[in-house]
Amino acid sequence: MTHIDHFIPWSRYSADLGHNFVLAHCRCNLSKGDKLAASEHLNGWVERNRQQRTFLAEEFDRRKIIHNLDASEKVASWSYSQAAGAGALAWLRGDLLVHVEPAWLEILST
Predict the structure, then answer these.
(1) Are 42 and 107 a contacting pair, CB within 8 Å?
(2) Residue 32 and residue 6: Cα distance in Å, rounded?
(3) Which range of residues forms the domain containing residue 93?
(4) Contact 21, 6 (CB under 8 A)
(5) What is the Cα gyration radius of the chain?
(6) 34 with 12: CB under 8 angstroms?
(7) What's the rounded mean pLDDT across residues 93-97?
């Protein structure tokens, strides 16, 4: 079963911006919970949003889903900055958590 997940957890930013939605396996979504995703997932999210920018914007508009890629990336940057500063853990897979890695800054700054 597939879930629709908020990539940046709802508990960190309670707005439904289209670029923040991702499809997730139900067990993965449930184990991720309100944690940020590890850098490899962040990289995939950024790549998807940037490579599919036009297509996603058109589909969000067609479905009347509010979206703003720049705002979504700023929210992600703020969230990862706060988590890294606090020494927080990020979800990698299953029950495996890792520290928020400095790679988040490079991923979001390009």
Answers:
(1) yes
(2) 10
(3) 2-109
(4) yes
(5) 13
(6) yes
(7) 96
